[in-house]
Amino acid sequence: MKKTIIIFLVSLLWISLVSRADIWAEREALSKIETELAALEALVKTAHAHSNPNDRTTFDYQSLLSDLRKIRTGISEHLEVPMEPVIPSSIDALSTRYTEHQ
Prior knowledge:
The model has no long low-confidence stretch (mean pLDDT about 80). This protein has about 100 residues and is mainly alpha-helical. The longest helix has about 50 residues. It is built from two helices and no strands. The protein has one domain.
């Protein structure tokens, strides 16, 4: 019985650690995306600087920059929110009182 309880508790701990690892992996990936979007924004500004506003067809760089900033802001806001701790479901303790007194 003790062995079963120990295995159960170790399993809960493992599940908790794995889910935390997933959270950190997600946050790391989002942080990398945010960095790449910042680099992309710089490239868009460079392209805009080389564009000719008198061309018959022009690209709307301001809309692209606005969209990139919205995406970066959304990622940044998500990363700023504190992570909720992973709390394993509670296990009801056994009662130690089996006798009722009236």
